[in-house]
Amino acid sequence: MNDRRSAHVRTGAGVPAYRRIATALWEQIQSGELAPGARLPNEAELAARFGVTRLTLRQAVIELQRLGAVEIRRGVGTFVMSPPDLVEIVASVPSLRQESDATADAFDEQALHRSARPVRTVDELILGSGAATGPLADEASAHLGVPAERLHRLDTVMVRDGRRWIANSYWFDERWAAVDGLVAEHALVVRAFADGLGLQLGYLWRAFSAIGADFDDAETLGVPTGTALLVRDGVSADDTGRPVFYVRRRLRGDEAKFVLRYDTEPMRVEG
Amino acid sequence: MNDRRSAHVRTGAGVPAYRRIATALWEQIQSGELAPGARLPNEAELAARFGVTRLTLRQAVIELQRLGAVEIRRGVGTFVMSPPDLVEIVASVPSLRQESDATADAFDEQALHRSARPVRTVDELILGSGAATGPLADEASAHLGVPAERLHRLDTVMVRDGRRWIANSYWFDERWAAVDGLVAEHALVVRAFADGLGLQLGYLWRAFSAIGADFDDAETLGVPTGTALLVRDGVSADDTGRPVFYVRRRLRGDEAKFVLRYDTEPMRVEG
DNA sequence: AAGTGGTCTAGACCACAAA
DNA sequence: TTGTGGTCTAGACCACTTG
Hints:
The structure is a homodimer.
Chain A: H1 17-30, H2 43-50, H3 54-67, E1 70-73, E2 77-80, E3 87-93, H4 102-105, E4 122-131, H5 135-144, E5 151-160, E6 163-173, H6 179-186, H7 189-197, E7 202-212, H8 215-221, E8 228-237, E9 243-252, E10 256-262
Parallel strand pairs in A: 3-10
Antiparallel strand pairs in A: 1-2, 4-5, 5-6, 6-9, 7-8, 8-9
Helix pairs in contact in A: 1-3, 2-3, 6-7
The structure holds a DNA duplex.
């Protein structure tokens, strides 16, 4: 990434062996010496080549895995990752009024940038539902103005073209708990709210952050614990502006990005 | 997080010891039994308590570190992390025209949500500059419509209240390479462009994604390799709409979040 | 000086995927 | 069946922080 800052103290003394190895392999990958899709020698051989134990060698490889530089497949081998095939979820600014939610975006031909693997289908499956508990329940309660005791929680996963894509958690007033039964019919939770319950939904706010995958998200998305996830949370409201639900989505950073396009003349930067 | 999916096969047989231990500690943290700021017993004692080697115990603790559940301080101990003190960088939609860049936002009292530790100062320091190379140079070239040979690259770090905050990389036509010398005077790169070179800057687009910290970002931001980083990249243009620079910012997911507020009546969701 | 985490070894056995 | 990665041990020594 920061190409000019390559020649570091990293190669000098005092640098742990696993770090030295990871850096060496990483630079081979960056330079293209190890091309995307290439298979690395097995761990025993790499360990011998670098003069360390397999455990130490593994520490280096796992670090590369966390960087997204390699993919480790048990029983098969370790491979250099290809550049991510990002699905771009696009919204226009200031014409956001005509934009849909990311969920609906996924079906919108125009909202998704054509990638090597175009999006064809998106379904949303319920993983669990019930009374809201835990620290985020209080946050949801504050966002919605609904007491935590009255909050209902819905956990889902969006499946894109047969692949688990986005882990979602919704919080809303228990009086809308009936949506649970409508999701299968309408494929997506937001549509269950809109078409099933007849609510006209819109945004109050959206926010972006990043976290490491916890145990549940890792299992849901099929990634190693700690993998960098993009978090997009927000509150949707009905046409009177009253909050309906708080939603928190988690997706792999290398599988999608959210794009805001400013289609009109550019805006001035203050100061 | 997903509270209802707690009782897993995780505790059964076939589950690695380090995972079992990590889960056990994690649940103690989630339940508040291990309160934020609390110090864990040292590794030797924990290892004995769980009946494993110190190395195995460490594997569990490191996994918790990647989750952001604990902070490991060498020579001191391991502590339960406090809930993140997120700085909220707020933009209003559709009134985005009056919004400034994140850099300028950092100085805007209204744009930053009051957190426990309010933002007082933001400076931007140059880490390096020169000809643009590497894979991202091609991307920048495409975004700007400038040949890669003519691209200049500028690496900086924004320092908030004395703490390294955001790692930035800028790419732009070499004819603006003079900004390098203006950054110190104007504190921020965007201001060096605006006030130093007299360019009226605005957005063409912004995008959000997430990655694991690579070796350079980890060193720049003082975090472990692989830490989840929020990436915000985009292209800024002058008042004629011609692209000026492509910028890619990386920041810790637990230190800031970008918020888009829809201040007017809510928007309809399609479909 | 004492206590804590950081790194490493040599060897073993297990779990999974592909042939 | 073979080859690959996944987990674990018992012990050692090093590096950092604090008193």
